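Example (one chain per record):
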Amino acid sequence: MQDPNDKKKFPMSEKFISELKDFEGFEPNAYWDVDHWSIGYGTKSTEGATITMEEADQALRSRIISVDIPELKRRHANW
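Predicted structure:
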């Protein structure tokens, strides 16, 4: 039986992850990104941090899993 809360989470496909990685690009060293430090595939970070490609992949997947679709729609009503 599927957990009803699963419907509220962003569906993760390998194609989506691949396209997101292509869009973000990989950066192993923390870089300044508008108003915060980022690393890997756009994960928030701290100055001077480093990350491997494998760690960045896991961080990206963790961020995607945690996206709450109703909350995202509330914040971005034009979707």
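Caption: The radius of gyration is 14 Å.
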